[in-house]
Amino acid sequence: MDLSKKTFHWMMTQRICLQETACYTNAVTQEATEEVSLDSPEREPILSDGPSPAITPVTPTAMLTPRMGLGTAEMFERSLDEIEEDDSGDTFDMHIAVSDPEKVGDGMNAYMGYKVTTKTSMTIFSKNETTVRRRFSDFLGLHSKLASRYLHIGYIVPPAPEKSIVGMTKVKVGKEDLSSAEFVEKRRSALERYLMRTVKHPILLKDPDVMMFLESSELPRAVSTQALSGAGILRMVNKAADAVNKMTIKMNESDAWFEEKHQQFENLDLQLRKLHASVECLVCHRKELSVNTASFAKSAAMLGNSEDHTALSRALSQLAEVEEKIDQLHQDQAYADFYLFSELLGDYVRLITAVKGVFDHRMKTWSKWQDTQLLLQKKREAESKLQFANKPDKLQQAQDEIKEEIEELEGKVQQGEKDFELISKTIRKEVSRFEKERVKDFKVVIIKYLESLVQTQQQLIKYWEAFLPEAKAIA
Amino acid sequence: MEYDPKHTSTVVLKPFSQSHGVGVARSVSVDLNNDASLLIDIPDALCERDKVKFTVHTKTTLSSFQKPDFSVPRQHEDFIWLHDALVETEDYAGLIIPPAPPKPDFESPREKMHKLGEGEATMTKEEYTKMKQELEAEYLAVFKKTVQVHEVFLQRLSSHPILSKDRNFQIFLEYDQDLSVRRKNAKETFGSFFKNMVKSADEVIISGIKEVDDFFEQEKTFLLDYSSKIKDSTARAEKMTRSHKNVADDYIHISATLNSLSVDDNTALKKFTNVEGRVASDEELKLTELLRYYMLDIQAAKDLLYRRARALADYENSNKALDKARLKSKDITQAEEHQQQCLQKFDKLSESGKRELTSFKGRRVVAFRKNLIEMAELEIKHAKNNMALLQGCIELLKSN
């Protein structure tokens, strides 16, 4: 596809294909899609067919395969913290490319298959280069597993690209026009950015599901990402419930850092959304400019034809040609505007939503801890009241029962406090990593964008300098 | 192009020599005002609400004027009166009457200003100021354009050997009281409207008349075709420059928001938006204005052709009348005289028409050449500026 050739021009990732794995066969159930707004379900615990959401950070050891290089027993003892610090001396060196979108199947059962090529020198991976084929729901499935595992303990899990009914239906129906090609390209690029962001996270990189996604030739079909599945409906219910809960939780923020950061992220969210809207406006106007330039070029050519003074006629035709070339320039620039700038901003708006979600989880953790504490208090009061109960034969039994409950609750309160402290600590680290990444990301993209602008200007100079002697030749 | 920051609803323009727009008047209609015996310019103008008051300044060595150096205030309607008076003068039927200057149109910047006022709450102070500045620049640009087209109109007249001696023209330049008493009253306006209607009907008939002269036949074909093409090009050039302005405006919003994000040092980006805005307005000046002016001028040339064709038709009709009279042996002398008159008129028109059309072509070619060269040079200059700015910005970012 011509568009994928263009992406070479803008994207930095390399593409070297090793082996073609067998194409993914079509499953029986269809993939229903739903339009998801910018406030994605990242903020709510997503139930998936992965392991159930754990309260304590425990590495799901069942998923480890021997080739990981770390014994399962060792994993038991380590916490995620330590895994993060000990990266076995690997510097981050990984490039993932998503390419070659191919339509598989026909009609409403059809889907787009993408080639995912991983190129790395890191030792935790079994091969230097791997190629697999994945479909969109696989990506969503991966994300939902990661989210359920890591979001509630404070890790900022990058959000997956959005579903889109309109876009996908056009593709399924087989509409081979420019807008569906654009849609596929937009999605391909978004999937690539999603994977790169995910693996840049030191914890997520080592998650076995991520490894499996990148390396294994076949993945179980992620059914629960469908909107109308049982899991999907549960998602929506949870979303509503959480929205209500959030309004009722009033947290005593003892830590000024969190207060400050929360505010900062609110501001950042606003600014990014505004910027995103402006850039989308720019893309739109530049496309308009391109159309108008092309139409003027045609008209100038006709004017040149009807001009009877030969030199002027030639100059006008030349002008028409210059304007045509400039139109092409505008188109290319609009492409850059969009893929470099606008999509980056969109990604970050969604990321900020994930960050805010993580803050919310902390609030929930705190709330849970407080609730447990209240419960403990009540039990203690009940215990002391027992002393004045009337039935002495039942007294001992009741007392024993309550003592048990109290012990259990005390354990839970302690755990709750630990959880809260852990999530707070994790969030601090995550936020500082996020900020660093953000600044780096933006800088890289803005430099690339400015360079694209510079290139446009250079071309403009070339074209007009070529035209000038023609204009001067009019006698 | 710097703009005068002290803006209210009345705008006063500095003398033209200080602005870069001074080239436009000369380039659209090249080399006017080089006859020192009659020099006209519009050194300043006032804008009050919808009305623009031009100060028309004349310097002359001709004895037909009362003073060697004088100025009068004039409104747009006065220019239209002068134009129509010239068009209706029979003696000038063989001349291309310079097209009347279009009415000053502040609709676009005014609308934008209105929208800006409404959206003020959603913008940062800096963004608002920047947008306001851009709008004021646009307003000023429209203003300058309208002054220039009015000036060019007068200068075309003053440099024409016959039209410069017109009595109405003199009155226009000299009469130091309100001209509105001289302007059409309602009845006359209606009369001229009616005349225009008849003229268009005539045009349809006349364009079918067989042309006796090759030169005019060629000119007719050329002008008809060229006229429609240039109208089309003008419209599209307008659309193009408007899109360009939109893009420049978007950059203003973007740089303002980037500022508040303090993601990078974007003074360069701000300057870039300035330059983009300038590119759009220069493009407009050189290209769109050029096309627009010649669109009107070509219409004037076409009008000349039609007048001549009309004279030809009259001549042919008079021939027929003469034949009829000879047949009836009645009023032969009258018919002969009439026929002679028509022939004379037709010959005179043909002669002066040929002259006018030839010089018109020359003027047109020269003007296009000048404008196209200047536009290309400006585009190159701006692109080089942009590049330097952007590269500086990139250097800064990379070094951080």
Automatic annotation (TrEMBL), chain A:
Keywords: Acetylation, Cell projection, Coiled coil, Endosome, Membrane, Phosphoprotein, Protein transport, Transport. The keyword Membrane applies. GO terms for biological process: early endosome to Golgi transport; protein transport. InterPro entries: AH/BAR_dom_sf, PX_dom, PX_dom_sf, Vps5_C. GO terms for cellular component: cytosol; early endosome membrane; lamellipodium. Residues 33-61 are annotated as: Disordered. Pfam families: PX, Vps5. It comes from the Eukaryota. One of its GO terms (molecular function) is phosphatidylinositol binding. Residues 392-419 form a coiled coil. It is found in: Cell projection, Lamellipodium; Early endosome membrane. Involved in several stages of intracellular trafficking. Interacts with membranes containing phosphatidylinositol 3-phosphate (PtdIns(3P)) or phosphatidylinositol 3,5-bisphosphate (PtdIns(3,5)P2). Acts in part as component of the retromer membrane-deforming SNX-BAR subcomplex. The SNX-BAR retromer mediates retrograde transport of cargo proteins from endosomes to the trans-Golgi network (TGN) and is involved in endosome-to-plasma membrane transport for cargo protein recycling. This is Sorting nexin-2. It comes from Oncorhynchus kisutch. The lineage of its organism: Eukaryota, Metazoa, Chordata, Craniata, Vertebrata. The gene is SNX2.
UniProtKB/TrEMBL annotation, chain B:
One of its GO terms (cellular component) is cytosol. Pfam families: PX, Vps5. Residues 32-179 form the PX domain. PANTHER family: SORTING NEXIN FAMILY MEMBER (PTHR45850), SORTING NEXIN-5 (PTHR45850:SF5). Belongs to the sorting nexin family. Involved in several stages of intracellular trafficking. This is Sorting nexin. It comes from Oncorhynchus kisutch (Coho salmon).
